[in-house]
Amino acid sequence: MSHADFVHLHLHTEYSLLDGGCRLDRLMDKAHEMNFSALAITDHGVLYGAIDFYQAAKEKGIKPIIGCEVYVAPNSRLEKKTSSGGRDVYNHLVLLARDETGYRNLVKLATAAHLEGYYYKPRIDKELLAAHKEGLIALSGCLASEIPEWITKDQVAIRNLYALEGGPATPPVGYTPDGLTTAYWTQTIGALPATYTHYQTGVAAQGPTLSRDEDNTNVSFRAGADWKASDDVLAYLNFSQGYRGAAFNGQAANFPAEANFAAPEKLNSYEIGLKTNLWNRRGEFNVAVFHYDYRNQQFLDAFTLPGGSGSGFHTINAPKSRVDGAEFEFRAKATDDLEIRSALGLLHSKYVELTLHAGSRVCCVGNQLIQAPDYSASLGVDWRFARLAAGDLRLLVDGNLYAKQYFDAFNTERLAQGAYGLANARVSFESSAKRGFGAGAWIKNIANRKYLAYGLNQNDPDTGALGFDYGLVGEPRTYGVDLTYRF
Length: 487
Description:
Layout: H1 24-33, E1 38-44, H2 50-59, E2 63-72, E3 91-97, H3 100-115, E4 123-124, H4 126-131, E5 136-139, H5 146-152, E6 155-161, E7 163-167, E8 184-189, E9 200-201, E10 210-215, E11 222-230, E12 233-244, E13 247-248, E14 261-262, E15 265-278, E16 283-304, E17 311-335, E18 338-353, E19 375-387, E20 391-402, E21 420-431, E22 437-444, E23 452-456, E24 470-473, E25 478-485
Parallel strand pairs: 1-2, 2-4
Antiparallel strand pairs: 2-3, 3-5, 6-10, 7-8, 8-9, 11-12, 12-15, 13-14, 15-16, 16-17, 17-18, 18-19, 19-20, 20-21, 21-22, 22-25, 23-24
């Protein structure tokens, strides 16, 4: 019987107190049963079990690899202080002895860790490791090791933030411009006081600057199961966690409260679905049903600046929100020259916990999420209407339909975009040669439908009282041609 191809190089035994459950006798019996050629021992911070492990492995004809998962101090092993109850005073590192020299160095490291570096755990440091590195092999280790920790830790810092606004050639009076040349600047965030009469030449900070920090460290996971009922039918079920790091408000311009982070956003997603192939793979039908639980969903909120001087914006979080929905997809190749694609999405979204501008209105539990229409649909037809000696002529027509959607958490009706549809088309020629050219002419928004792609509430008393709202109009009817060459 051949040896197993796999060797455990990171393994805790009963000698890893409170952290290992492998009894040596049972461990060796199982390793022998599975025909392991070698096995390592890497107990936490100690070598108590090395001799017993060595002897037990030899009796079973297994090559013993002596190692230790040591604790490494972030700086000096002699430095003994913490700011988090001991969680920040060490990282893990797996060391394996390659030969007798490595084993002796491992003994020296474990001894020094107990006699010199003990603080919560027996710790070495990089100075000690450098002095006794011969004959040792280091592995990156578990999530508590330095490399994985740096991969999963993300600290965002904004330093020396201030905002400047340009002015006319001479300092203005109040808000009234009296020139066209931008030569004077005023600091609008950080300066005390920050007014339009404190102008200077040159782009530089005129007063104190702001700094902001946010921790983006996160670990998430995904689990799922697939069931292939037949060659053409696959059912699946999965759970996954989503994460979006802290969001800094890039629109901060006038007030210190605008220069803020929204806390990281987290999502728990539950989905069950079915994927099917039809008519000897000439068609597909897929369906998915899902439930999303959001925590701290991020969005931009407008508020009235002090003194009623306009709208300020800051990134904030909705503590809890959720989305329930379903998606349907259908594709059919009706003929060799004609393919039809369609999709339908259904959503029901709402804020479960969210209070905005509590002093001026009651909002916003039960409101629909921003830009989350109750339904959306698409239909596309790809038709090869002519086959020529030089290539193919194709016509692609597609359309999209969207339900009513809101652009703020207040669900402001005057700023909402009602249901609308868009249609597009493209005619193209594709060369059949390996090296050839393609050309196309296209039109987007054929009916020249006017719609809002985005909006900001700036008209209400608690969002700026500017007398108007901001709206970003969607792309109008647009024409174009393109030419490509393959080589």
